[in-house]
Amino acid sequence: MNKETDDWDVLLAAGIAGDSAAYRRFLYLVTPVIRGIVRSRGTALGEAVCEDIVQEVLLAVHLKRHTWKQDSPVRPWVYAIARYKVVDGFRSRGQRVHVPIESVAESLPAAEAADPTVAWDMEKMIGKLDGRSADIVRRIGLNGESIAETGEALLMSEGAVRVALHRALKRLAALRERFVE
């Protein structure tokens, strides 16, 4: 295996010129390299799909060998075909990657716990409002009641509840600005 017989450029040029032994040697030498590129870039596709892509790359190299410019190195040309075929492999398979949760469960972040001081801070700020405004903010903002439910409980029209809520929130924003600075 001297440098001359293992040079991809020389072998492909000879293969294009009609030397079938040189072309066979070229394919023999590029196949493991293509397989490595496809497996490293298409890890999530699985081994069987990667092998299909290797075959697609070899077929593309064979069908498009006449497009290779003999004054350019063949490696970047082959590498580009392999990269594009891997991308096509992801596209044609819906871009979904199935990874068993067991294999990554230990690296997932823990669920975020609620900040225990938030509720106390909100109640402290709401407590600075007048009674009715504070009740409206608690019912709608904290308890999730609707405008209609709040109006019915406080004997107010929906429009009056909306106006009171807007004014209460405006006062809370002003209080927040004063305490945060």
Describe this protein's structure.
With 181 residues, this protein is an all-alpha fold. The protein folds into 2 domains: 3-103, RNA polymerase sigma factor, region 2, helix turn helix motif (Rna Polymerase Sigma Factor, Chain: A, Orthogonal Bundle); 116-180, Orthogonal Bundle (Arc Repressor Mutant, subunit A). Helices cover 70% and strands 0% of the residues. It has 9 helices and no strands. It has helices spanning 3-6, 8-16, 20-41, 47-64, 74-92, 116-126, 131-142, 147-154, 158-180. Helix 7 crosses helix 9 (158-180) and helix 8 (147-154) crosses helix 9 (158-180). It is rod-shaped and about 95 Å long. It starts with a helix and ends with a helix. The relative contact order is 0.07. The model has no long low-confidence stretch (mean pLDDT 84).
Helix content: 55-70%
The N- and C-terminal alpha carbons lie at a distance of 76 Å
CATH architectural arrangement of the largest domain: Orthogonal Bundle
Major beta-sheet overview: none
Task: Describe the structure concisely.
By secondary structure, the chain is mainly alpha-helical. The protein has 9 helices and no strands. The mean pLDDT is 84.
Please supply descriptive tags for the structure shown above.
70% helix; mainly alpha; Arc Repressor Mutant, subunit A; 181 residues
Topology:
Elements: H1 3-6, H2 8-16, H3 20-41, H4 47-64, H5 74-92, H6 116-126, H7 131-142, H8 147-154, H9 158-180
Helix pairs in contact: 2-3, 3-4, 3-5, 4-5, 7-9, 8-9
